Amino acid sequence: MTISSAMPTAKERPRRTRSKRVSNLPPLKLSQLPPSHIDLRDPLKAVLVCEDCSTWCPITGINSKVQKVVPHHTGKAGVADAVHCRGSNRRIDWDLTIPQWHQALTDAIREASSRAATAVLPTAFSPQTDRILRARKERTPTGRLADWNAVLPRMAATDEHRRLAVAGAAPAEARSVPTDHLTIGGLGS
Ligand SMILES: [Zn+2]
Asked: Chain-centre distance of CA 88, in angstroms?
C-alpha cells in the first residue's frame, strides 16, 4: 500500500455542459463585474472571471434560458490539483447587453490609460544608473578601436578555417560553401 497516492490534476474546462446542477451562490450579475473580467466578443464562446477562483471560465447555456459558469477546478488544467471550485454552475444574471458591455470596457480602458498618463512622472536616476550611463557616454573612438582590434585575430582565424576545403568529394546537390569574405582592409574606412 502506498502512503501517498498522486492527487489527480485539474481537468480541462468544458465549453458547454448540460448539467442541471445549480450553485447555491447568488447569481452573478454581469453589471457588477469589472468589464475587463467579461469577454463577450464571441457570445458563443463567452467567458468571465470566476469570482471564487479568479480564473477565466466559459459560460454555458447562451442559447438556453439559464446561463451558468461551467463546472471547473480552481487551478490550471493538467498542472494544479483537482480542486472543485465552489463557483461551478453558478447562475449568471444577464443584466447587460453586449453593446453595453463593450461600451463599459471601452470606458474602463480609456479611464485606465488617462490615469497612467498622469501617474508617470520623470524620476531621478539612481546613482548606479547614472554611473552606467556616464561610463557608456565615455566610450571613446579609441576605446572602440581597441575593442575591435582585440576581435580581429579571432575573425582572421575563422576566415582561414572557412577557406579550408573539406576532404572528399563535394556533395552533388548542396550549394557550395561561400568562400567570399570581408577583408579587414574593407572594414575600417
Ligand atoms: Zn472558480
From this structure: 26
How far is it, in rounded angstroms, from Cα 88 to Cα 13? 11
Looking at residue 188, its pLDDT comes to 46
52-56, 137-141, 148-152: which has the minimum mean pLDDT? 137-141
Q: How far is the CA of 49 from the centre of ligand 1 (A)?
A: 8
Q: What whole-number percentage of the chain has pLDDT above 70?
A: 71
Place of cell 492527487: 7
What separation in Å is there between the alpha carbon of 97 and the centre of ligand 1? 23
Residue 166, all three cell numbers: 573539406
| 24 CA distance to ligand 1 middle (Å) | 14
Give me the pLDDT at residue 172, please: 57
Give the Cα separation of 72 and 84 in Å (integer): 6
pLDDT for residue 37 is more than 90: yes
8-state DSSP, 145:
H
138: Cβ–Cβ under 8 A, 6 or more apart, which residues? none
Alpha-carbon gap, residue 154 to 4, rounded angstroms: 58
Strands (E), 86-181: 92-93
- Measured between its terminal Cα atoms, the distance across the chain in Å is 78
Output the CA–CA distances (angstroms, integers) from residue 165 to 162, 168, 173, 174, 177, in the order listed.
Answer: 8, 9, 17, 15, 9
How far apart CA 112 and CA 40 sit, in angstroms, is: 20
